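Quick start: read one record
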Amino acid sequence: MVRKVMIAVIAVAAVLLATAGVERAASGAATTSLLLPASTAFSVLGHSCGGIQEQALATGFDATSGYPTGDVYLQTRCGGSGKGGGYHTTTYSRWVGVTWDYTGAVVSSNALAAPPTNVDPTFSAVDSFGNEIYNVLNAVNVLPANCTVGNTTYCSYRAYLSLAPTFVPPPRVTSMSVTSGPAVGGTSVTVTGTGFTGATAATFGGTPAASFAVNGDTSITAVSPAASAGTVDVMVTTAGGTSSPSSSDQFMFIAGPTVSGVSPNSGTVNGGTTVTITGANFTNATSVNFGDTPVGFTVNDDSSITVVSPVAEAPDTVDITVTTVGGTSSVSSSDQFTFIAIAAPTVSGVSPNSGTVNGGTTVTITGANFTNATAVDFGGTPAGFTVNDDSSITAVSPVAAAAGTVDVTVVTAGGSSATSVADHFTYTTPTGCAAVRVRGVSSAPS
């Protein structure tokens, strides 16, 4: 008889505790159970054998953010046959300190090195707004006095947050679609979080967004304003207050590149001129343009880039611009590069200026604009040659069909040299006893 009475008392006590918790939760305007997501629980324990049992107990309100705080006990039991036979059970458990926002979302969590000493299953507290946090113990087939946190089979500890009917939670920013943009502004950012309904402002480091639109309670689209380079917090303001700064709301304004010099600042329309661009904020450059023409480039450091000028259709002066995440450099007289026409070569002398029709005479051609010469002709007949420098070429006269005077011309990308008396070379008939052969025609010795 005594045993039956005791069982009845235990059952009634368990029912009363569970019922009391539900009634209390229902009395608030909005009540939320404060738990740790399963994914976070698993990352802490590293095991989940038949599920993870969770005991959550509220401990107070955070002094800075006002958010509810608590400690959560996690436990899972893994069993199997052990060495030597028999069934063995291994229990994995850990305490985690947690901060939740007013929606019950986890703001932060950290595994504790040792069990907390301030856990009170009967704890409750009310903040200055009338919001309440409290713990509820549900005991099943066991007296509440016999419950312990580690007893996850018969005892369930739960923490609850009950918001006051007139309380408007402050907004909270949890993530942003874009975390950097040019200091000139204009970057569209989707801000994700909670409590955005009725937002009256969105700021970047205290500077109002160029514009913003509330997509819903959890999303705002804001356009970054112009600002100084640096990292700032993006905050949202509603009737409930302004979101607290955190690592989740940071946005970096990146200074745009500037070009202060170009050396050399000219080259031929044929391209190929190696140019050093000096300036600032070149790190992570994404493109370099000569006018509208993109070119390959090498970033030497934050203030120097090396490029090779492209081919131009005609002589012109263009701006060299550098583009990074921070934007594109503004054009100025400091970034200009002039494409100049390739000057045609000129021949001012040929020495010696005569040789036999048999060819083979080594001739030095003097003049100008010989660099990158592509051909040397003696009266239209190509000759082998070597460019000594821009004003000198060494050539070997080719075989001629007949004696006579011809023009020696030089060809480059700038064209062919104009003929004049200065480029004349005279072919002579060989004399002496030796037979000569000109293009396969033999003559008898004298």
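The CA atoms of residues 56 and 158 lie 5 Å apart.
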